[in-house]
């Protein structure tokens, strides 16, 4: 049984110290820890050191694991450390592993931000705007704030906590899978369950627990021809143009309403069963919430059920960009000699990344052959991750659902998600333990987008939620 007096005092302390927590998040947002930018690599290390100092302050024992080097943009760079922390080692208590990441997506003011992305700004509605506020600095700091609050009110922490924070999640999590496999029967041996707070509510009003994610296969296709860029006035109409070939190939991948045109891609999609169909009827979600998040009414489907199914349980293909093309302001009549197109396929159970790659490669080569072009084609899958599904009936989810009811006074929706967090499946397979996704932010937080935000309310209540979840874990019977 959870001690309600302890929770009441915990909640009261969090409420009284929320400005302190916002200031702490402001410090973290000010560190531009962009893992995909070689020029920001030192900042990623700086963010890791910032967390280490907080570990020390809170009495968390830790190891900053060196996972080696990698090559990016022609440079050999040191990978940021993976931080393994331990708080408590009482054999009578359950041990929960929490995962998060301290790196962030790139952000420039000229991308369309209303304020400097590296300065946390709070608007009149309590929106804390800044890169990484929701993804994932707010949630990982939330765990540490919960530890601090227990210390300040003089209450024993309810579980043993294992911490795994990495600095490369936004750039492929290099080194993480190998570390998890290596430490599965060492550092992670005593773990009873895993909790990750790196996703979002479905909408903006009701919390959720997430038990499934789509996988991702990310492709780079390169078309090359002339030995150098050419003047279109001199050479246009006399050579096969790589850009023309690429655009035609892109047009063959997907229809405007999202139908994937690559043969074989949909063959292994798990069948929609009646019991799953029934779950969509009780989920609190309105199309207006989607339209608010995308700031338009460009949704494909006119009803909630089809929209959620398209987001959760069917694959999608998205075209992301072209490298090597002229994109600066003004007029330039260049004919690029080589262009690379980037697209990804979000996969679902029971799709396999290797089969997806084989289907894509075969299809693109066949379509390229039909063009009769003398250019050359290269197809590369640069990243492949399987979809993930967990069991929402596990005590780990029951504890989280109980915590949601205590903090938000409602039962959470059980959801799947359209995004991909590959480490969920890695932890599940390597440790053979249940993995829970317990989101802090709302569906309109704009992670990876301009004006990313975390509402003060979600940040404060999220700290309460994370702490309460751990108390519920301690009280619940493991079966």
UniProtKB/TrEMBL annotation:
Q: Where is this site: Important for catalytic activity?
A: 231
> Which GO MF terms does the UniProt record name?
metal ion binding; metallodipeptidase activity
Q: Where is the active site?
A: 103, 169
Nuclease found in the keyword field: no
Cofactor(s) essential for the protein: Mn(2+)
Manganese among keywords: yes
The Peptidase M20 dimerisation domain is annotated at: 211-368
Q: Name one GO biological process term.
A: proteolysis
Task: Kindly list the positions annotated as binding Mn(2+) 2.
Answer: 101, 135, 198
Q: Where does this protein hold Mn(2+) 1?
A: 135, 170, 448
* Binding positions for substrate per the UniProt entry: 198, 231, 333, 346, 420, 448
Entry keyword set = Hydrolase, Manganese, Metal-binding, Metalloprotease, Protease
| Cofactor, free-text remark | Binds 2 manganese ions per subunit.
Which family does this protein fall into?
Answer: Belongs to the peptidase M20A family.
Q: What is this protein identified as?
A: 17226_t:CDS:1
